[in-house]
């Protein structure tokens, strides 16, 4: 089975981790000859100084070389280090085994077992065979060095003594080989299964992520389409009313601006999340949707309304609520709820003197209280058929005087604190819309002149 990039990363990291453990064994190996010399000096052991010196030199060279190599981030160098480390330990054990005073026979099986930690069957088998050969060579040297002690000076007697011992160790090492081979096969099978499971899981997760991304993309596209439709409705309403088209665009900006300033000032921080503010701004597009049921002659009348006309105009919040109640759900219905509250309550006042219900204070939804401020702000500083725009300072005076009556105090404060920003935005809007406004105004003036002539 071919390995994925993640699998290769796992094995590379595992080699690095096991190499770190082997490094600690090699460093500990440096102290063994020193310990043997100390025990010899104390009369508890008998190791020649020359043998100890050679052992120390060997262990220091191997451990230093190994520690130098494993600092490399190269996977190839880490593999070379893997072989150097285990062979270095096995060579040290074999060297110790050549001494007639040291018995390290069980240690020959330790290194092949360590190799199993690398999850590399080829490495385990190769090191197992090398360990066996090193053990036979070490025993041969031990018997050669100990021939005089065992009174085996002639070759024939030596062979008779060495061969049975070598045969016995061979049988013992066969068990080591079988254990190592079993562990290697088991590890290989287990890892193969784990890799298969992980690959299946990764494949499932990848498909799940792709599905999630596609869903989010489609959901985002759907929301974008929905809000474009809302914007289109607002623009259609603008063709019905000279001022409503630009008015909803302006108030959308002011709603977002006021909401963010409220949050900055510490008001309604938990409610005014980025998502909620975005919904408020989008819902501002349709706060005057009820005006679509108001006759154009009234909407674009030159001069003030009669009492009857004003009463008819006052019906647009109720008409707006009625229209938005049949709007298909957008954003799980949150947009619909906010848009309906804005359309229905944006003419209510903080002190309860507004319409259509005359509710007061926090009975008025927060979105509508913010919409009220944005609505009045734009009406004050924008041109109308029946009036010229007020200056920014005059508009700020209205908000100051109406703080706590028409507007919630913190909302009035937010608007006043945004004076300079509002002035810049208003200047940009007027510059951008002046040409289109002139043409539209001229059309409506001609319309009213024609209606007056007919009368």
Summarize the structure.
The chain is mainly α and 455 residues long.
Note the topology.
Layout: H1 5-29, H2 31-41, H3 49-69, H4 75-97, H5 110-115, H6 121-145, H7 155-240, H8 244-264, H9 274-283, H10 296-299, H11 307-313, H12 316-324, H13 334-345, H14 366-381, H15 392-401, H16 409-417, H17 419-454
Helix pairs in contact: 1-3, 1-4, 2-3, 3-4, 4-6, 6-7, 7-8, 8-9, 8-14, 8-16, 9-13, 12-13, 13-14, 14-15
Overview of this protein structure:
The protein is mainly alpha-helical. The protein folds into two domains: 5-209, no CATH class; 241-454, Hypothetical protein af1432. Helices cover 73% and strands 0% of the residues. The longest helix has 86 residues, at 155-240. The chain starts with a helix and ends with a helix. The relative contact order is 0.06. Residues 1-5 have low confidence and may be disordered.
CATH superfamily of the largest domain: Hypothetical protein af1432
Report the top-level CATH class of the largest domain: Mainly Alpha
Percent of residues in helices: over 70%
**What is the rounded Rg?**
45 Å
First-residue to last-residue Cα separation: 92 Å
Identify the CATH architecture of the largest domain: Orthogonal Bundle
Q: What is the mean predicted local confidence, pLDDT?
A: 82
By DSSP (H or I, 4+ residues per run), the number of helices equals: 17
* Category by helix and strand content: mainly alpha
Characterize the overall form: rod-shaped
Number of strand segments: 0
Main β-sheet description = none
Which range does the strand content fall in? under 5%
Pick out the low-confidence regions. 1-5
